[in-house]
Queue: 2 jobs
Job 1
Amino acid sequence: MTVKTMAQFAAENKIPEILFWVGCAGSFDDRAQKVTRAFAEILTSAGIEFAVLGDEEACTGDPARRAGNEFLFQMTALQNIETLNMYGVKKMVTACPHCFNTIKNEYPALGGHYDIVHHTQLLQELIDNGRIKMTGGGEFKGRRITYHDSCYLGRANGIYEAPRDVLQSLDTQLVEMKRSKTNGLCCGAGGAQMWKEDEPGDKRINMERVEEALGTGADVIAVNCPFCLTMMSDGVTAKEGGAMVYDLSELIVGGMAK
Amino acid sequence: MVQSIIFILVSVAALGYAFWQFRQVYLNIQLGKEETVEGPVAERWKNMFLVAMGQKKMFKRIIPAVLHLMLYVAFVFTQIELLEIFIDGIFGVHRFFAEPLGGLYTFIISTIEILSVLAFVATLIFLIRRNILFIPRFNKPEMTGWPKLDANLILIFELILLLCIFTMNGTDEVLQRLDPAHYPDTHLAITGWLGPMIFGGLEQGTLEVLERIGWWGHIIMVFVFLNYLPKSKHLHILLAFPNTWYARLKPKGEMINMPEIMNEVKTMMGLGDPDAPEPDMNAELPEFGANDIFEMSRIDLLGAYSCTECGRCTSVCPANITGKKLSPRKIVMDVRDRSEQVGANIRSGNAEFAKDASQPVSADNYDDGKNLWDFITREEIHACTTCNACVEACPVLINPLEMIMKLRRHEILTEAAGPQDWLPLFNSIENQQRAWSVGTSRTAWAEE
C-alpha cells in the first residue's frame, strides 16, 4: 500500500482532503498496525485523498500528561502543533480516541486548532453518504457483536452513537453489555496504565471487562481504540478464547464492496 | 410570653452559631486557589436546575433515587410549615395560618403530612440499607467510624424530627375537640385519624404537654440539623447547588492546561513571545500540581465539602472494582478532612503552625509539617485510569479525577517521583517522540 506524507503533498504544492493521524499504537504496535491498514484501505476505497505525517508525527502527549508529566506533554504537543501549523492542516482523522481527545480538546489551549474526527465518526459519514458501500453480507453478517465503549470516545467526548450506527450497517446482531455508554467500564489502559504494572488488587481490569463482554454471548468484541484492542485481546487470550476482538474499521473492511 | 422569649433566644443562638460555622466552611473553601469559571452561564443554571434541584443524576439508580426523592420533597415542603412555626414562636400564637387560609391550610399541611409519612418510610429503608443489607458501596474501608455514624445520625435525627411533627399534629387534632377555642380545626390527612387513634382518651393537660413537646422537639431538631450540617456529609443539601453551578463545563476528557509550564516550554523551544520579560532566575522555584489543599482549586474544595459519601464514584471505579486501593470517594473525603484540619489550625492561632514563627499563622504563613500525602497514599493515585467513570457517576457533579491529576502532577513535576515503570515511557517520548521505543519508521505499517 502506498501512502503519501504531508511533506510529499507539500512538495507537489497540493493539500490532501484529510490528514490521517496514525498515532504511536497505530504506527508501532503489530496488532494496531492492522487497524491502520484497514482504515487506510477504507479511505482509499472511498476515494479520499489523505496524507500522513510519517516520521514528522510525534506522540500527542496523552500518556505523559495523564501520568502528570506536563513538561513532556507541552514539549511533544507544541512540536506537533508546529508541524501541523506549518503544513496548514485543517481537517484530521485518527483511529485513536486518546490522540483524538488530546488534539480536539487540549491542543487549542496551546495554539493548535484543527477539525478532527474519530475514525468511527468518519466511517459513519462515509456509509451515510454512500462513499463506501456495504455488501450486506461479509463475514460478520448475523454474528453476535458486542461493542466496548472506550472512555476517551465515550465519557470523555460523548460519542456513543456513531460507532453503533456503523455496526448496524454490518447487518450483525448487536448486543449491549450491562455497563455501556455513559456507564461503560474502562479496559484498564488509560491514564498511562498501559505503560505500568497494575497496583496490587484482586484482578486485572481487562479481565473484569472481558468477562462481561463474553457474558453477552457475543463472538465478536468491537472496539474503537488501539489500547482497548490490546487489553481486550489479552483478556480473551487469558480466557482461552471465546470471541474475537476487532476494531470497527476491520469489521467494515470485511463487509464493504471493494 | 415566656415561651416567646425563650423561642427568640434559642433561635438567635442557633442561627448565630450556625452562621459562624458556615462561615468557617466558606473560609476553608477560600484556602484553595481561585479558578477561572469558563463557559456559558446559562449552562451553569441549567446544570443546577437539573442536577441539584431536579436530582437528574440520582435517577441512574432508581431505588435510592425514589427513596431520596421522598426525603427531598418532604424536606422542601416542610419549609412552608417552618415559616408558621417561626411566626407562632415569636408572637406566641397557635397555628397562625389555620384560620385565614382555611381549606387551603388543610391542603398544605396535609400534603406535608403525606410527604412526611413517605419520608419516614424512606428513612427506615435507608437505615436498613445502611445497617442490615450488605450494600458494597456503604461498606468500604473509608466508611467506618465517623462517616458511618454520621450517616446513621442523620437518619435518626430525621426520624426524631418526623415523630415530633406527628406528635404535634396528632395531639392537636384531639385538643381541637376538647378546646376548640384555642385549637382551630385542621382536618389533617394523616393525623386527622391517626391522632385520635393514638392520643384519644388522654387528659387535656397531658395532651397540651405532648403538643408542646412535639412543637419544641420539631424546632429544636431543625436547629440541631442546621448546626450539624457544617460538620457532616449532610452539608450536600446546601452545597449541591453551588457545586453543580460551578462544575466544569468542558469535555470530560480535557485536562486543565498549565500555562506557566506551556510558556516556559515555548521559550525553551524558541516559540515564546520575544517581547516577554526575562524570567526571574532568583525567584523561588514554583510548585506544580497539588500536594495540599492550598494548591487545589476552590472548586475542588467546594466539591469536597459537597460530598455526601454515597460512593457512586467508588462503585463504578474500575480500579476499585478490581480490588485496588483507589477509591475516588476517599480522595474527596480526604481533601475535605485536610481542609477542616488546616482551617482549624489556622483559627487556633497557634504559632507552631506558622511557617515563619515570628509572624501570626495564616493561610500564607502555614506549615504544620503535613500535607495530603498524610491522607492519601501514592498507590491510590497510581491506580487511576482517568476513565471519568467517577466524574460521570457523581450526583452533585464533584470531579475526583481533577484532584487525582493534581496530585499526580505534583508527584512528577515537583517531587520528580512517581512509578518507575513510567520512565521508559517518558524517555521514549522525549528522545524518540513516540510512546514506545520500538519499530523503525512510522509508515512501516504501509510497507507490508
Job 2
Amino acid sequence: MARKKRETAGVNASSMADIAFLLLIFFLVTTTIASDKGLNVLLPPKNSDQKQDVEINKRNVYSILINSNNELLIEDKPGRIGQIKRDIKKHVRNYGKDPNFSDSPDAAVVSIKTDRGTTYEVYLAVLDRVRAGYHEIRADYIGEIAGRTITVDHYLEIAQQKTEEHRIWYEAARKKFPMRISDAEPSDGKAIAK
Amino acid sequence: MRLKKKKKADPEIPTSALPDIIFMLLFFFMVSTVLRETELLVDVKLPKATQIEKIEKKSLVSYIYIGAPQPKYQDKYGTEPRIQMNDVIIQPRQVQRLVLKEKDKLKEEADQIIMSLKVDKDAKMGIVIDVREQLRDADALRVNYSSSKPNSEL
C-alpha cells in the first residue's frame, strides 16, 4: 500500500486581509492627521523693570483697530480686510515717497489693536492678510536675488530653511524686510513682536 | 480536425496580494498619524488662514486649547470659552505655571518651546490676550496660532 504523500503544513492565510482591514480601520478611527500648521509669531519678551515706550513716528505705523463688533479702523478710517495686503505692500516699500506711509522697510511697523470682544477669527484673518503682504514682498525680493519668479507658496517653503541656499535667501529677506507686527494691548502700553 | 476549445479562465481577480496591500496602507497610516494624546473637553473649530507655516520639531510643541466646553461638560464648565491644557480645564492665571512645567520637561531646550494655540474661531480676543500675557510671563515666546488651509475642513 502506497503511503499518501504528506501535505506541506501551511497556515491558512485567507483571513489575513480581514485582520489587516480591522487594524487599518482601528487606526483610521483613532488617529488624527497631524495638523500642526498655523501662523508662527514671536511674542515680545516681558521686561517689567524697563518699560519701553519707543517713540515711533506716526507715518511709520500702519495701524489697524478692530472693535468688538469686528469693524475695522485702518489708519483712522473705516476699512476692509480686503485692502490690508495691498496697503501693507505700499506701506513697507514706500521709502519715504508718500508722506502717509513709512520712511523705510526697517522703520515700518504694523500695529494691530483689538478689543477684548473682538472675535478671534477676525483678528487672525487680519494677521493673515498682514503676513500675506509681507510674504509677497519677501517673495519678490528673493525672486530678485534668485533671478526668477518666486511665488508666496514657494516663499513659505523657503522659510522652512531646509537647504543652505534657502537659509541665505530667507535671512536676506528677513533682514531687508523685518516683519514688525505689534499687538497693542487694549489697556497697558505697546508690545512689538518681531 | 476539430479544434478543442480551451476552457475560458475564471474571470476572477487574484486576491492573494490583498493582505500585502492592506498592510501597506496600515503601515502608512500608522507612520503618518499620531495618536491623540489628550481628550478634548472643549470644541475647537480652527479658523482659516492662507499664510500657513508648518511646525518642524514636534517634540518642542505644547498645546493650549481655547473654546466653548463640549455639550456634555457644559453643566460643569458653562458655555463660555475656556482654556484647556493637558486634559484639564484651567483658569487663565494657571497658564504660566503649567507652561513652566512643560518647559521643565524639555530640559536644555526649554527656551525653544513652541506653544500651539488651538483657538476656536468664535472665541473672543479677551481670553486670547490673557493667555498671551501669561505666555510672556512664562517666557514662552514662540507661538503658533493654529489654523487650517482655506480648502480643508480639518
